[in-house]
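Re: the multi-chain job from yesterday

Posting the exact lines I submitted so nobody has to dig through the queue logs.
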Amino acid sequence: MDILTNLLFGLKVAGEPYNLMVAAAGLILGVIVGVLPGLGGANGCAILIPVTFVMPPVAAVILLASLYWGSLYGGCICSILFNIPGEPWAVATTFDGYPMAKKGQAGRALSAAFFAHFCGAVLGTIALTFFAPLLAAFALRFGPPEVFGVMLLTFSAFVGLVGKSPIKTLVATAFGFIMAAVGIDIVSGELRLTFGLTPLMGGFNFIVAVIGLFGIGEILLTVEEGLKFEGVKVRMRWSDITATFKDMRRYWKTLVLGSFVGVWMGFKPGGATPASFMAYGFAKEAMNEEERAQFGQGHVAGIFAPESAAHGAGTSALIPMITLGIPGSPTAAVILGGLMIWGLQPGPMLFVDKPDFVWGLIASTWYGNIIGLLIVLAFAPAFAAVLRTPFAILMPLLIFICAIGAYAVNNRMIDIWYMMIFGIIGWAFKKLDYNMAPMLLALVLGDMAESAMRQSMIMSQGSLLIFVQPPIALPLVIAAAIIGSWPWLNPMIRRMRGKEAGTSAGH
Amino acid sequence: MTTKAADILVAAILLVVGLIVGFDSLRLGAGWGMEGPKGGFFPIVMAALAVAGCVVIIRQAMKGTSSVKGSKPFVPSGGMKPVLTVFIPACGMVLLTEVVGLYVAAMIYLAAYIKVVGGYRWRTVLLISIPIPLIFYWVFEKIFLIPLPMGMIGAQILRF
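And the result, structure tokens for all chains:
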């Protein structure tokens, strides 16, 4: 088995003491950023990217990936103990997690969440291990038109399936691409959209955008809402963990279902949040009358479902990132950006050129999730204590750390100012339903999408037909067209169906 | 300001930015050049999408079919003050960074914020605001060798 040999090789790479140490450090930092409001996986990775410059790429990606797993684990501490979802996909967990904590079962709720995460992680990692190489081998046949088709599909998925306002998602995406275009044109080398202003010549860095949009913006939203962090105190006892084992045996179907929904949805961009809600809904449907009534009052399956889905989605978001160079989540986008900074070309060739990197990353998700589970089980109360830091102390510290991260990417003072501006934009956009994940993705992928498009057009000497050539590009573009126009298509279909039903009923 | 007004204002700003981008792309040339599409081709497509989208957003906001509730205030009452108490001092820190560097600016910013907004005792204030930037200084400048902004006179202040 080719994959198993590669996996063993990867386990050896990721199992080196230095890499294991890096993974543990990443996990602990990840849980902390996951717990803190205003910092999430995307932000934590963005701030840490300058630190990775001094590491070999394998260790660097292990650090960022571990931070990602840690932040997924940490998010549920916040939503269960404080009733504040640290991330959008943790919203569904608050429905049952917080009531359980209020009832004095905080330890049991947390341990249920952690083990649910672990189940999602295992399924996601299996998918990553066995599916990613196949997809990469297939993607090796992609030329520029196919790459462009995949990008089109990605962004139309955002417009069509994610977010409350499709049109605003479209506008946000367009501005992401526009920001990516500012600076030097990669093909011709001429300056564009700089209007003669020196600060614009360097373009916009996506890391600065992440820190501003998701970090500063989120902090501003938090203080505006005047959130108070008055959480439930927690102690983890051995009996909580044994109780979870019993719960797991009883609701194993919920766990498996949640994990599957997560892995399936997470593969598509922006899938974690809908996945967690879907899993919650499915779990509730599958229960009998009596248990369904307990949902929302603190039913343990109401934690199992969304948490396993969220972690499964987070893990499988790495599959398109590592194989196609298209990240499935904002955090994966930041890791992808890191890849480019370390001088690696994202895409299927990575599997051929840098097997130690790819398999080191895949293997580290196995290690990372096991170590992560042990860390959160052992230290959950300590991590919860971080949130009890008074806001007047925590908040200026967060802004200081954000400023370090924004500056250190390019050593440019102007980037700290950009960070503040992005903060305001993030604050306003969030309130007006502009979806920032595709904007960020467009900023990361802008150069790649544009060069794929321009290379295709050079290949075809200007004919747009190249984007719809069979066998691969055509189905991609058709799928993109259907998914992207879904918000408008769906009511149309419904209206037609409604008419049919109406006429047949009349006869 | 109502959310409706803010919705329209933001879309209008984006519309203007989109138009500016469109005109600059035209200046660069958005047609077929020596080696394929010119530099302005991709941006002008995006600018066109953005401008068209903004028009739709403004129309939706006017007709009240937007996904956000237009009648609600954009900033809930009592929400603006905490936002400004965070944002303005943070900008102050960035301004100070230009002069004394990030570490010293952070010390002043942390101390001022924790004292004035948090209302803590001087002992707490100093125990947090002095050592934390120093730890970061040690980690970034000495261990990872990542230089952070020193401003005009920051390097003279931190001489160890």
